[in-house]
Amino acid sequence: MSFDPSSLRFDAAGLVPVIAQDAQSAEILMMAWMNEEAVRRTFETGRVTYWSRSRQSFWVKGETSGNLQHLVELRIDCDRDCLLVLVRQEGPACHTGRRSCFYTALRDGEEVEIQSPQG
């Protein structure tokens, strides 16, 4: 059975949320969005391609920063309305220079920065 991206359940804007996870460490790196064409491009190129809601354009992760995401595996949740991409991440995933976008933890009711920028 071959995968058909149109079988996914996209929202009213034609998007599906995507969680990027490091394939080796299992660390959650970021969350973004894909439309049907971004899913197709990701499969065709092996480079994770998202849809930028602010720019209304495709965004190949690392295209300008050099912090590439190479697709290892794509997983579909049970409702077919959320994706998990297992990636090989080169450099930081977050635009702040941190490995992960999830660098703030709530501990005892306080926000604590648990990860510094790389470099």
What is the element layout, followed by pairings?
Elements (H helix, E strand, L loop, with lengths): L15 E7 L5 E7 L1 H10 L3 E4 L4 E4 L8 E8 L6 E7 L14 E4 L2 E4 L6
Parallel strand pairs: 1-6
Antiparallel strand pairs: 1-2, 3-4, 5-6, 7-8
CATH class: Alpha Beta
Q: What is the overall pLDDT average?
A: 96
Rg, Cα atoms, Å: 15 Å
In CATH, the architecture is: Roll
Low-confidence stretches: none
Strand order of the largest sheet: 2-1-6-5
Distance between the termini: 44 Å
Pfam family, one: PRA-CH
Subcellular location: Cytoplasm
Pathway: Amino-acid biosynthesis; L-histidine biosynthesis; L-histidine from 5-phospho-alpha-D-ribose 1-diphosphate: step 3/9; Amino-acid biosynthesis; L-histidine biosynthesis; L-histidine from 5-phospho-alpha-D-ribose 1-diphosphate: step 2/9
Domain Phosphoribosyl-AMP cyclohydrolase: 30-103
Written overview of the protein:
The structure is a single chain. This protein has one domain: Ubiquitin-like (UB roll) (Roll). The protein contains one helix and eight strands; from the N terminus they run E-E-H-E-E-E-E-E-E. The chain has one helix at 36-45, and strands at 16-22, 28-34, 49-52, 57-60, 69-76, 83-89, 104-107, 110-113. The chain has a four-stranded mixed beta sheet with strand order 2-1-6-5, with helices on one face. Strand 7 (104-107) and strand 8 (110-113) form a beta hairpin.
Summarize the structure.
The protein is mainly beta.
How would you describe this structure in keywords?
1 helix; about 10% helix; mainly beta; about 120 residues; Ubiquitin-like (UB roll); 8 strands
